[in-house]
Amino acid sequence: MRPLADPEEIKATAARILGEYLGADRCAYAEIEADENYLDITCDYTRGATPSIVGRFGVDDLGPEVLRLMRMDLPSVFNDIEAEASAKTDLSAFRRAEIQALVCAPIIKHGHFVARMSVQQKTPRRWLCEEIEIIRIVATRCWESVARARVLRRVREGEERLRRITDATHDALWEINLKTRRLWWSEGARPLFGHGPGDLEIGLEDWYGGIHPEDVDLVRAKFETFMRSGDPDWIDEYRFRRADGSYAYIQDRGRKFFDEGGTPVLVAGAMVDITEHKQDEEAIRKSEENARWQLAYVEAIYATAPVGLCFVDTEQRFLFDECGAEVITADSVSEALEALERFRPDALVSDIAMPNQDGYDLIRQVRSRGPEQGGKIPAVAVTAYASAEDRVRVLSSGFQTHVSKPIDPGELIVTVASLTGHIHF
Q1: Is 161 exposed, middle or buried (0-12, 13-18, 19+ CB in 10 A)?
Q2: Helix axis angle, 359-367 to 388-397, nearest 10°
Q3: What is the pLDDT of the chain when averaged over all its residues?
Q4: Distance between CA atoms of residues 25 and 47, nearest Å
Q5: pLDDT level of residue 387 (50, 70, 90 thresholds)
Q6: Residue among 277, 275, 231, 236 at smallest CA distance from 253
């Protein structure tokens, strides 16, 4: 009976094989309901014209004496019911079912009457001891097979339910055994990462190994703190490597599960792909930043109107002419220094790359002057070089900030307006 998976098929097969082996007219397996007041016969074996007795009956359907023996875990045996029953025994149920000889074997589990197997004959029959023992063995094996099949069915149903949920949510479910520190992954890992569950490593360190290098230290610290704490729940966001080497943004949630002593034994959770959400957030952020720059650009056009500027070897003065700023220009370091003697601008905008002397030479000489000679003038460097080293050199030489080429007109206007105090962020 082990290859069979359906409980009803197991009961029907057991009844048929036993009935045929014993040459009986009827064989029926009955399950006792939880309150032990009723029993259910869902299938039976019958020979020839013998009627079926499938149905729901009172647990004492064969009389109080049979029930008493059943609850004592003893078989009830009749070789000839009409001859053996006392005068007070009601034989109407036996006669309706055409029963003249009977063996009824109980199954008792944990002190409860849970099932019985009955083998019946329409004519008197002397039951042998070995036949009675076979009936008891088959009854027990049948109950065990049915119980096993129901457990396996619940497991399969649970797995199918889990698969449906995973398919519907596109989540990767996981579980960590805290004793072995081994991971289990659901099939949801396949669409999420391009891996199947069997492709993913099963150690906790392997999970850490899949996290983006920029995120892993923070994730590890937060998760290990969670594991040491009494907190039941954990949540984090990080980037996790896909099979193709790219990274997915993940929102990960987990919950601890405890044994009877209160010790955590499992952590189970789900990983949700939030990459599209993150991309949407970034698009919104850039859109808002662009709107902010556009607004600042408009404000700066008006804010720079009273500003005096000195441009050295740049072609951007027309931007500030349009804003109404007072602008002077110089084509070299010497011209710029002469201009600063005559004019006290609010800011200096200088290209770094110039013939003979460059922008660094200019700012060095400007900063050597006293405040009354313009030595403290705010200065912006314009340069085609934008490496980290170039930025450090620009700032350390005396410029307050720099704008990289090719120049964004809005960026330059906003930078000058901010530097001169005409606009604030």
Answers
A1: exposed
A2: 30
A3: 84
A4: 5
A5: confident
A6: 236
